[in-house]
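In response to the reviewer comment on reproducibility (Comment 2.3), we provide here a single inverse folding case reported in full, input and output, so that an independent group could reproduce the run without further information from us. The structure tokens appear first.
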């Protein structure tokens, strides 16, 4: 080797030796840069599991008034929206013909009664035959029944409210001729408003009769009304796996009436004090097991969690996490246990 080439060879050797001296060894693994994450602290606070379902408000007590006699309507005392009391006269029909027929039936029944009583005395003396006596008794019974029928028809010409409530339908006017089975009026009791909702059969074991319910009506978006579970129907739809639940509205508010669309919030489980984290922190497996990454001294640990009550944005942690411990809520997919992390932001509970 020439003397001119020796300095170049010495330089290359020095670089190689320097590189070898700084290469990582098994005892000194190469350090990776930290992963940037956002966290939140597990906190102790109340939590409730709520089931929300929609339905239409309807009155539990509602009566359709159907004409049972034929006649011209001479008077209607109410319109839609009017409040009525039980027994109040609502409609009158022309009773001229029925009244005359009733008087005729009364006369015929009275004549038959007198004849029957006369033959009753004579049959004991043997002056009339048993056959004549039985015919008289039969005729009296028939005419007496005819009289009762005519009196009933006459009573049907005066129609009274069967319950107290509000007139929600009027299908006739004065001057119309009412015919049997015609729908004339509907009376609804606003004090008995209910709504029926459909709930998953999986939630039914946690719903009890009398449970409080919060009702929200679309017509009044900034207000809530009170209700309670009145009954749970003992039948599950085999296709949808939904069960019907009836909610009784306990607020006697005049703004609530039949036909309104509403949403019912049923609290099926609640605790006043629970360890809670956001659902953003949860890693859920296909078989339903939960885990979370917990930051301990700038390193992450993967913890298996046992969950309790869950709502739309939070979950109760029964085991695997303590209040105050910090869980990762973003960047979970790029983490492995033991990684170094750097916290860029800690989410805190909003509100006072």
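Designed residues, in position order:
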């Amino acid at each position: 080797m020439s003397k001119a080439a020796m300095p170049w060879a010495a330089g290359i050797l020095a670089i190689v030796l320097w590189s070898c001296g700084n290469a990582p060894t098994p005892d000194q693994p190469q350090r990776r840069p930290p992963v940037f994450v956002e966290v939140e602290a597990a906190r102790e606070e109340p939590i409730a599991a709520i089931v929300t379902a929609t339905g239409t408000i309807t009155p539990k007590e509602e009566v359709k008034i159907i004409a049972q006699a034929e006649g011209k309507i001479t008077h209607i005392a109410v319109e839609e929206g009017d409040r009525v009391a039980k027994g109040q006269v609502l409609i009158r029909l022309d009773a001229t013909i029925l009244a005359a027929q009733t008087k005729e039936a009364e006369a015929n029944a009275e004549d038959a009664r007198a004849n029957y009583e006369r033959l009753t005395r004579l049959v004991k003396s043997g002056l009339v035959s048993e056959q004549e006596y039985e015919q008289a008794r039969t005729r009296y019974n028939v005419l007496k029944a005819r009289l009762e029928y005519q009196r009933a028809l006459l009573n049907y010409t005066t129609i009274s409210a069967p319950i107290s409530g509000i007139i929600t339908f009027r299908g006739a006017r004065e001057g119309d001729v009412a015919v049997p089975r015609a729908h004339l009026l509907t009376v609804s009791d606003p004090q008995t408003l209910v709504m029926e909702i459909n709930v998953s059969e999986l939630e039914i074991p946690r719903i009890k009769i009398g449970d409080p319910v919060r009702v929200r009506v679309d017509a009044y978006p900034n207000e809530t009304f009170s209700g309670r579970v009145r009954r749970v129907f003992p039948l599950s739809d085999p296709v949808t796996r939904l069960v019907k639940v009836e909610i009784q509205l306990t607020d006697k508010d005049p703004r609530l009436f039949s036909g309104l669309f509403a949403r019912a919030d049923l609290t099926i489980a609640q605790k006043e004090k629970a360890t809670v984290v956001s659902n953003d922190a949860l890693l859920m497996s296909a078989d339903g097991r939960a885990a979370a990454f917990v930051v301990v001294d700038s390193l992450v640990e993967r913890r298996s969690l046992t969950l309790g009550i869950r709502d739309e944005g939070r979950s109760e942690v029964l085991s695997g996490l303590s209040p105050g411990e910090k869980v990762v809520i973003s960047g979970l997919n790029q983490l492995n246990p033991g990684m170094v992390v750097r916290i860029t932001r800690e989410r805190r509970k909003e509100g006072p």
